[in-house]
């Protein structure tokens, strides 16, 4: 078995949450059954280090709801692993920011899902949370923390993107844009982006990357957005997509100690073990673990990816998106490369797509941005 290097663990510290986000993939609210206690959580930090993990992202639910949050975060830093914190930004006191600063985190990420309180709070399910989250952002910026905003896009807020970009640009805020999945019990499937809307989000990010310097607007699409586009070259963090990293270089840890390749793949079939029963290093090094990615064979691809020239490096896009949309792995229906092929075939979809682009144009201040969009989709089209 090749030697896999664990670079990053994304750890759901608790499923307990004070918000009720409509798109939440794990339907957070109440605690999970049998969440790790403090002793088990500290032991897990040590096991992460022993397994060679370089970086840990603490999230929830809402991670600040755990009373031992600071002990766990400190332990991670004492063990010389990088720390990121992903929060809804509503639970803080006067010491939160200096305490975070003392931990020298790699990133502190806050979720903002709307350009106004109405949209954000409809999505996040609790009145008053918009103002609170922006208060968190302002205080974190004042403390000079490495701040990111994460925005999850569905039909409910796609039209907010241009306005949100104005609120975020030139403020030393990194922006990660991702799309909503339908794993959570609260999310009606009709709010999922359709193919053209999904592609428009990629166009939007590409446009921002052309409009602003990386310093003015560091913006990326998450793993679910992208792959081998002929036109959109600036959407992701990497210039080349090397396939889903679940179980290759990343893991997800549930608050009860379950280990998965990625927390987004919210299905018990993908649980590789539980750290209450087996040491993390043993789970990571087990030859049978994360087999769907580690032992991928070309014939594993589903109908959407079979025969694709990028398959050996791409392995069929984001495992979560593929599973959610088609019930199969290695079969991502939403892939820029594939969508471009479809759009070029289907005249009426193509027309609808440009209608959506024209709506983006109207909401962007600088008129020259649309010519950039047109250049991407018309000027450079061979
Ligand atoms: S069709 Fe599948 S394998 Fe090909 S680029 Fe898209 S997601 Fe990757
Ligand atoms: S399942 Fe998707 S989000 Fe998770 S690691 Fe793979 S590509 Fe990334």
Distance between the terminal alpha carbons, to the nearest Å? 43 Å
Low-confidence stretches: 358-382
Estimate the strand proportion.
Answer: 5-15%
Major sheet description:
10 strands, mixed
The helix fraction, in percent, is: 25-40%
Form type: globular
Specify Rg, calculated over alpha carbons.
Answer: 21 Å
Which ligands accompany this protein? iron/sulfur cluster
Mean pLDDT: 89
Quickly count the helices.
Answer: 14
Order of helices and strands: EHEHEHEHHEHEHEEEEHHHHHHH
Describe this structure in words.
The chain has a ten-stranded mixed beta sheet with strand order 7-6-5-4-3-2-1-8-9-10. The C terminus is likely disordered. The chain starts with 7 loop residues before the first strand and ends with a helix. The chain is globular. Helix 1 runs parallel beside helix 2 and helix 7 packs across helix 13. It is built from 14 helices and ten strands. It is α/β, with parallel strands linked by helices and 382 residues long. Bound molecules: iron/sulfur cluster (2 copies). One iron/sulfur cluster binds next to helix 10 and helix 12.
Please outline the helices and strands.
Layout: E1 8-12, H1 38-50, E2 55-59, H2 69-78, E3 82-87, H3 96-102, E4 107-111, H4 117-124, H5 129-142, E5 147-153, H6 161-168, E6 174-179, H7 195-211, E7 219-221, E8 250-253, E9 258-260, E10 273-274, H8 280-285, H9 291-294, H10 311-314, H11 319-326, H12 336-345, H13 347-362, H14 368-379
Parallel strand pairs: 1-2, 1-8, 2-3, 3-4, 4-5, 5-6, 6-7
Antiparallel strand pairs: 8-9, 9-10
The protein binds iron/sulfur cluster (2 copies).
């Amino acid at each position: 078995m090749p030697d896999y290097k664990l670079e990053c663990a994304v750890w759901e510290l608790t499923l307990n949450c004070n918000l009720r986000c409509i798109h939440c993939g794990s339907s957070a609210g109440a605690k999970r059954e049998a969440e790790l206690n403090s002793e088990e959580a500290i032991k897990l930090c040590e096991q992460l280090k022993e397994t060679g993990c370089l970086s840990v992202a603490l999230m929830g639910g809402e991670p600040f709801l755990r009373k031992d949050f600071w002990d766990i975060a400190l332990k991670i830093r004492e063990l010389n692993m990088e720390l990121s914190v992903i929060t809804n930004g509503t639970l803080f006191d006067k010491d939160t920011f200096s305490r975070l600063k003392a931990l020298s985190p790699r990133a502190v990420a806050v979720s903002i899902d709307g350009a106004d309180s109405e949209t954000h709070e409809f999505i996040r399910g609790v009145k008053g949370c918009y103002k609170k989250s922006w208060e968190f952002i302002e205080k974190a910026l004042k403390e000079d923390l490495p701040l990111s905003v994460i925005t999850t896009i569905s039909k409910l807020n796609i039209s907010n993107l241009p306005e949100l970009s104005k609120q975020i640009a030139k403020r030393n805020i990194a922006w990660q844009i991702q799309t909503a999945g339908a794993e959570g019990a609260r999310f009606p499937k009709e709010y999922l982006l359709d193919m053209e809307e999904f592609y428009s989000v990629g166009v939007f990010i590409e446009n921002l990357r052309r409009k602003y310097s990386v310093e003015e607007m560091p913006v990326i699409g998450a793993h679910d957005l992208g792959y081998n586009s002929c036109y959109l070259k600036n959407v992701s963090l990497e210039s080349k997509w090397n396939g889903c990293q679940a179980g290759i270089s990343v893991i997800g840890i549930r608050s009860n100690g379950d280990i998965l390749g990625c927390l987004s793949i919210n299905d018990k079939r993908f649980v590789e073990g539980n750290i209450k029963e087996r040491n993390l290093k043993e789970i990571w090094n087990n030859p049978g673990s994360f087999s769907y990615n580690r032992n991928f064979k070309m014939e594993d691809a589903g109908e959407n990816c079979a025969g694709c020239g990028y398959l050996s490096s791409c392995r069929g896009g984001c495992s979560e998106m593929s599973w959610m949309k088609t019930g199969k792995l290695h079969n991502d229906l939403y892939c820029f490369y594939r969508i471009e092929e479809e759009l070029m075939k289907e005249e009426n979809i193509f027309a609808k797509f440009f209608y959506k682009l024209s709506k983006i144009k109207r909401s962007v201040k600088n008129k020259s941005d649309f010519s950039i969009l047109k250049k991407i989709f018309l000027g450079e089209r061979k």
